[in-house]
Amino acid sequence: MADAKVIPFDDDRSRGSRGAGSRRRGGSAESAPAGDKGPVGEVQALPVRGAAEDPAPEPDASPAAPPAVEDGGADGGLERRVAAGLSFLRRRLTGDYEVDDFGYDAELTDQVLMSLLRPMYEKYFRVEVKGVENIPAEGGALIVANHSGTLPLDGLMMQVAVHDHHPADRHLRLLAADLVFVLPVVNELARKLGHTLACAEDAERLLAQGELVGVMPEGFKGIGKPFGERYKLQRFGRGGFVSTALRQGAPIVPCSIVGAEEIYPMIGNSKTLARLLGFPYFPLTPTFPWLGPLGAVPLPTKWTIQFGEPIPTDGYAPEAAEDPVLMFNLTDQVREQIQHTLYKLLVQRRSVFF
Length: 354
Known about the structure:
Layout: H1 74-94, H2 106-124, E1 128-130, E2 141-145, H3 153-165, E3 172-176, H4 186-192, E4 196-197, H5 200-208, E5 212-215, H6 220-223, H7 240-248, E6 252-258, E7 268-269, H8 271-277, E8 283-284, E9 304-307, H9 324-348
Parallel strand pairs: 1-9, 2-5, 2-6, 3-4, 3-5
Antiparallel strand pairs: 6-9, 7-8
Helix pairs in contact: 2-3, 5-7
């Protein structure tokens, strides 16, 4: 077998182009001599095909060559995957990979973390994405979404939606609460995924670098609200995300997520346990904590994520970011657009699970 080549470990969306350098294998057979044998020592003339004295056509003595075997077959594909995996492990062990100033690891996100989240996105929640073309193909932009579901799975599913469906292969950098960055393991994974602290300084730096930034202004008020208040948006704070967008001239893209509210129906909140554990709330659902770890499994609801038309901010003067009236109006405009889209998607939804 030929020496295996070490092929760079590309992302999982470019697998279709890896068979370009395939090699062929094939055998050739020796041709049998044509014509009858003459007397010993006599040189025989080569027969002429189609001549009158030999009307019968000379049979082709060369057998058909076996079909070439492409490296893109099962064996070649397995070799490439093994070589790619070993190359990936070598880079991880030797530190031959890059992270940005916020800790974002693009290679680990594309090849590992997204692959872990994708089955939940595609098979479990069966997320349907609409309006992804409203996200700009380049430059900084701020995606503002509703927040719900007791656990912040909606942010992760929105990140997969942008990663897998945007035609320009953009990556969403989410702004997360302080609690995310004090939890062991979760802190490291969040940084690797490109999440950063939900503060104006980090958001402005990312937008200035032309990144796509995601924010959920409801915060814990949205994610920890009772099941009876599902799909009713909470306050969007003081409109700090609008001020950030105005300073950078970045468009604001409203995003509405339906389906996350029902994954953990929150019927109660144990405030005593929340204080003891340092959490903003401790959810009580029909299955948790009564069924133990099994109660932490989310319900397999059907999700829809819709990105609305962007609201431009580059037409305002620089001092507009300090205008409280303008910030209030833009914040209210974004909130109303998200709420209206939520109602529209709920009317169109056939079932919570289908």
